[in-house]
Amino acid sequence: MSDSKVDDAKVEPTTFSDNGKLSPIDDNGSDGDTIIEGSEGVSKHEYDTLRHVGDRFPWTAWLIVIVEFAERWSYYGTTNILNNYIRAPLPRGSVNGAVFFAEDRAGGIAGALGRGQTVSFAIRTFNTFFVYITPFLGAIVADTMWGRYKTILFFSVVCLLGHVILVGSASPSSLAKTDTAMGLLIFAILVMAIGAGSIKSNVSPMIAEQYTGKLRKKTLGSGETVVVSPAVTIQSVYLWFYAAINLGASGAISASFLARDHGYWIAWLVPTGIFVLVPGVLLAGRKQYVVTPPRGSVLLETFRVVGFALRPAWSFNPAKTLRNIRAPNFWDPAKPSTYASGSIPGKITWDDEFVGEVARTCNACAVFLFFPFYWLCYSQIDGNLSTTAAGMTLNGSPNDLIQNLNPICIIIMVPIFDFLIYPFLRRRGINFTPIKRIYAGFIVAGISMAYAAALQSYLNNLSPCHDNAPSACETEIGTPNPAPVNVWIVAGPYILVGVSEIFASITSLEYAFTKAPTRMKSVVMAFSQFPIAVSAAINLALTPVNAEVHFLWLYTSFAVVAWVVGTIFFVTFRNLDRREAELNAIGKGDRAGFADERSSTSITEK
């Protein structure tokens, strides 16, 4: 197709306006064509008909991949063994949590505090809740004070301090007084959650910000003209970013063996050492990163804009409140132009365009409202399935080792999806859009829970103790008495959840970044993590039923919830797929002013 002719008909050049419609612009594009806002001369017709390919992203992005790899190793190297540490007592003869007698190691389980499954679940769930609430702290600090780079650097030191406290909490002298060990554990969890959560809301957008390319055309050596798409590039960025997360998580495989054979303080000393890479790599590349400087209290102002809009819409009648929120003039009370000159409330410190960005971002990112139900399924592989595995024949494999199959599966599948599956679909003209991918993630997550439910039912029937906590089933001399079921059969849910993450979790990161105006990326990324905290809060409310005797019911319920909520999600948001190009242009046009992506600057220029 010619670059200068698309259609014989003369069409007035247009661009996307605030309301998502096409509106006239200056004729700076092809004859009879429409130019997509923010692109380098790519027409709407070319965007719809040419094959989309990804661009290269710079080496500084790979430095941030290393940062994420080290941070996730330290996180999963810590949390993957928390379940046994809290739930199970010290093995016979042990002072540090390790299985003391060699003859016990084939089926023995490391442990320390002996507080039981319910207490273990509550503490681990609180940890998840707190880790995914604190991204808002990191977003506020980055947007108002330090920018993303300095925020990540500072909170990496905070997180490192938490790791040191954790190592001390698991020393033999500490475990001699389990109440002391429990108190230090909770304190360490709080400190590490503040550090890790504040890093989380900033490292995800920072890696994508290293790529500053725009939508453009390119002619390949074969003569084919393609569209070099930032959206496809960002999709690839987050695929590999997520691979780094899971490479770090799988690196924590050693933690299970170290805890069983050498004790918990040794098991937690290794991820502490790995975490030292985080501030080290950040400092090594400090002169090369593309960074976004702080631009004011974007998160706080976002809440204020929403508050101004909600105030007149609120009603004790929920149906009326919903109608008011959906009304075309819902955002008007937050716009300065609504008020007469001189009567603008003093708390309004923004312009109409900022209100428009908040409105469009909220509309696009409403997809995150459904994610708590997805993360309920994921939460089961974080602990409950490990307890299920503890009631099976281990044959020398620690029960908490199996959960590392989840990150290993993702590491294997990411290059397959990035280099084979997604390009194959694009070459065939199949548009596997974000909404469809997320829906597929819900469906596969539900299948994983159905597998877990069937396995738990089978295990209950074969266990010598039957439904009465198979993981705690013991012989008369107090050694484990597992069901005659090989522990690796439990691999199915971990692998299936890994596939679902490629569809749903990775896409949610991509969606959060591409749909956010530049000055609101930390805000939106924090909101994209918030559903995990909501999921943890729901799980906290379900603590009484998160006992082993209820696992069959729990897994079955989560399978049904994933399928039902996923279907409602797809029906609700399938129209967003048709507006993909428009939503990707939010906050990226000429009117974005200082919010334009090109305003990012290197640290040495600040």
From TrEMBL:
Any one GO CC term of this protein is: membrane
Q: Can you provide one Gene Ontology molecular function annotated for this UniProt record?
A: transmembrane transporter activity
Pfam families the record matches: PTR2
Q: Which GO terms describe its biological process?
A: oligopeptide transport
Membrane in keyword set = yes
Topology of this chain in the membrane: Multi-pass membrane protein
Alphabetical list of SUPFAM superfamilies matching this protein: MFS general substrate transporter (SSF103473)
Q: What is its main location?
A: membrane
Ranges annotated as biased composition (Basic and acidic residues): 1-11
Entry keywords, A to Z: Membrane, Transmembrane, Transmembrane helix
Question: Which PROSITE patterns does this entry report, sorted A to Z?
Answer: PTR2_1
Q: From the record, give the transmembrane residue ranges.
A: 129-146, 153-175, 181-199, 239-259, 265-285, 362-381, 401-425, 437-454, 487-511, 523-545, 551-573
| Record keyword Membrane present | yes
Q: Where is this region: Disordered?
A: 1-38
> Where is this gene product found?
Membrane
Q: Describe the family membership recorded for this protein in Swiss-Prot or TrEMBL.
A: Belongs to the major facilitator superfamily. Proton-dependent oligopeptide transporter (POT/PTR) (TC 2.A.17) family.
Protein name as annotated? Peptide transporter PTR2B
Source organism (scientific name): Coprinopsis marcescibilis (Agaric fungus)
